[in-house]
Amino acid sequence: MAKTIVGLFEDVNVAHTVVQELIDAGVDRNKISIVANDAKGEYKHYRADGSSAAEGAGAGAVGGGVLGGVLGLLVGVGALAIPGIGPVLAAGPLAAALGTAGASTLVGAGVGAATGGLIGGLIGLGIPEEDANMYAEGVRRGSTLVTAQVADNMADRAATIMQREGTVDLDAEGASWRQSGWQGFDVNAKPYSTSEIESFRASRPKATTARVEKQSRNLNQDEAVLPVIEEELKVGKRQVQRGGVRVHTSIEEKPVEEQVSLHRETVNVERRPVDRPVSDADRTAFKEQSFELTETEEEAVVSKQARVIEEVVVNKQAEEHTETVRDSVRRQDVHVHEQGNERAVNASGYDAYDTDFRRHFQTSYANSGYTYDQYAPTYRYGYNLASSDRTRGKDWDAIQADARRTWEERNPGTWEQFKDSIRYAWDRARGGR
Known about the structure:
32% helix; single chain; 12 helices; elongated
């Protein structure tokens, strides 16, 4: 078995040192790849032997002094353009994967286009797609990528060589990119200019540890490990503002009227003509005297008293309700198809029953409107039930309820439709029927 060791470096000088040390440590040079961003156009004149063409002799000290010796050690050197990244210099197996297998002669005469993309080349080396996206973005932002396929006994040594000052901390870089809105490498994006790349390098924090991918791959290609991946739906909760009530008070005036009865006293002076002699009743004759009478009048006095005539109560009511969330999840399965009429005699595990399950599908469900590939997960589920330690020694009636619950969690409402094929696979794997 072989492992793929990957490192991303801040500049080509560090990458050159890493490549040289890997070769000195005994790593097969035919298994080493390098991809260097060439936004400045320094490497486009390089030949396969690591020397530059005449018109490119003055490309610069960085290109001639650093990569000249390294490129003479690696195979498949090519100057090309990668969608989303722009011009790069690539060497080794990655160069071939990027569409430059014919770049062993002079490449200065023309620049090829890597239609497969860097991500495809990395996935071909066993790198997970998520990490391949980040490595491609790193090259796009001016870093230099180095990969090496090594045997198990060389993996630790190669990883130690990769972990040096100048190695890009891919986890920290990826987190920083995502904070700025990056969602993945985009082959249709415009390549960064030299000034933008220099800005990225200036703002990049120094790495303390290197991220090294170790993917198991068979050196002679007799074995491949293919993962079966299934998404799981997780539903959480978050609080969102749906609306509310804004309450405020205001003051207004309006005219009012009230009737009030007022009392008034006035002094009335009246002179009446009289012709009679003075009598005893006229005791005040020829005496000076005075009288005062006061006039009074009531007037309205206004006062106000505030009274509470109504109350407005504002509060919140909380209630719980259940909401059904519907979505879809993806599953990446691995399908094995027979070649020829006979299966190998050493077939084991689920593959040993594949022919039987296909025959059962053709007999029972060929007219159901489904394909065998759509029914295959039901057979595999039944087989896995029979192979589980939890069901050992139990019959179908004892495990059916638990099997149904687990199936319905992943495939709601489909147990009745598929339970017969699941039961068939259970019986066959247990030696029944």
